[in-house]
Amino acid sequence: MADGCAVQLTAPNGVTFPQPTGLFIGGQWVKSSLGKTITSIDPSTEKPIVAVQAGSVKDIDDAVSAARRALQDPSWRDLPETWDNGKPYSVSLNEDMGEVAGTLRYYAGFADKVFGQVIETTADKFAYTIREPIGVCGQIIPWNYPLAMAAWKLGPALACGNTVVLKPAEQTPLSILYFANLVTQAGFPPGVVNIVNGFGAEAGKALASHEDVDKIAFTGSTATAKDIMRMAASNLKNITLETGGKSPLVVFDDAELENAVEWAHAGIMSNQGQICTATSRILVQAGIFDQFMEAFKKQVRNVSTVGDPFDSNTFQGPQVSKAQLDRIKDFISVGKAEGANLEMGGQPQATAGGKGYFIQPTVFTGVNPQMRIFQEEVFGPFVTISKFESEEEAVALCNGTQYGLGSAVFTTNLTKAHRVARRIEAGMVWINSSNDSDWRIPFGGVKQSGIGRELGEAGLEAYSTVKAIHVNMRSKL
Ligand code: ADP
Question: Which atom of ligand 1 is nearest to 208's Cα?
């Protein structure tokens, strides 16, 4: 299975390419030990694309052993600059690939800059710290940005000298397998990066509870994160969790309206609303509310074209799966039953073939903070827009959920912007923008939106551990 059991696929845009379908363990392509597979579905047509191998508990165990061996292999342990070889895929950049390449390049630059400190104490003693790799890192990623999420996790883990077993989401197993071939081409020793597709309840669970895994990094739902935390307790694994959100976007009366509308639309409607930091609760001050509503609805009508993802005019493709589509439909029913006003959308989007998981962009107003549609993450092109009177009220609304991931504030008043940014309980605040994350800037949440940070230098702290070395300068006790 040296070529990843590659099958030739032709994408709807006519591009034919070899798609690996195996498990990437110890630098080799192998089949699932139990012969299980995952069928990847095209969400536009509901037709199967290809079946890929699904890892079992034993396959995860093999991958962890390969990662453990690679960790002890001097060709990896003593390599001074791990990622500086350059990335062959950078020739075919599009928006997501730009992020992947940018993140990996950023962390490649850090590979020889993971420093400790010298700590002065008394004349008799000095101490220093070194940052060491944590060891074998399990990484469980979601389906909404399959390659970017892999890059966010692989970049800092490898820059710090760890080895990795990465489990992609079962909905999106394809692109990361293609990436595995590039890992080999880039010259990584076998076993440093292992990629094992599989179902969460089997492969994900086996990885999170494995006794020889030193760290688990997870991005996904808050409910699954709680399970992972429990499993990680078995051997006290280091953990990083990036989970759900219900991120608020506050528009004050003095905001630049057009700018606020464009960012508010992009913040919730991009990527089919399937973004953990989607600004899914828009809060607008009373004096500008009617104007905002009119402009926002116009923006949705003009920009949110729903349709074939391979059509260059499409802004919003299908949701990733039937389960996600059904979840959004359920929340639409909940919103109506709770008495909120359905301003726009609320129906599946009819398409030419009558197939696919398409939904209209959906806007609710008349929402109160107790409603489920104000409190719970929907993960779709679904937004609530609420009116507030004062800054106090805006901050209380922002902080009134269990989440604390992203947030956004629109105002032309500089001091108000910074004051409110400090008062919002969130890992990230965008002032006069929304969701414009950057790999140089830490990303993560507070409350039930996660533990720890990814990206930026904080991402390196999440993948290294501090060793303190005490040096006695006295000749006798
Ligand atoms: P979603 O509900 O959005 O699909 P999940 O949190 O369930 O998000 O999935 C995110 C990732 O977590 C996926 O890779 C999935 O396979 C994995 N996963 C799901 N359930 C478990 C579990 N019990 N243990 C470990 N991993 C899991």
Answer: 25
Largest CA distance in the chain: 86
Mutate to test the pocket of ligand 1, among 176, 224, 239, 322 (most ligand atoms within 8 A of CB): 224
**What residue has token string 């990484």?**
139
User: In 141-213, where do the E strands start and end?
Assistant: 163-167, 193-195
137 catalytic residue (yes or no): no
Share of the chain above pLDDT 70, in %: 95
Q: What are the tokens at 466?
A: 């501090």
Does residue 398 carry a catalytic annotation?
no
Whole-angstrom CA distances from 130 to 114, 123, 359, 468 are 8, 21, 52, 7
How far is the C-alpha of 41 from the C-alpha of 31, rounded, in Å? Answer: 20
Mean pLDDT of 131-139: 97
pLDDT tens column, 19-68: 999 999 999 999 999 999 999 998 888 999 999 999 999 999 999 999 99
pTM over 0.90: yes
pLDDT for the residue numbered 83: 23
**Residue-wise burial string across 197-231, b where 16 or more C-beta atoms lie within 10 A, e elsewhere:** bbbbebbbbbbbbbeebbbbbbbbbbebbebbbeb
Distance 220 CA to ligand 1 centre (A): 6
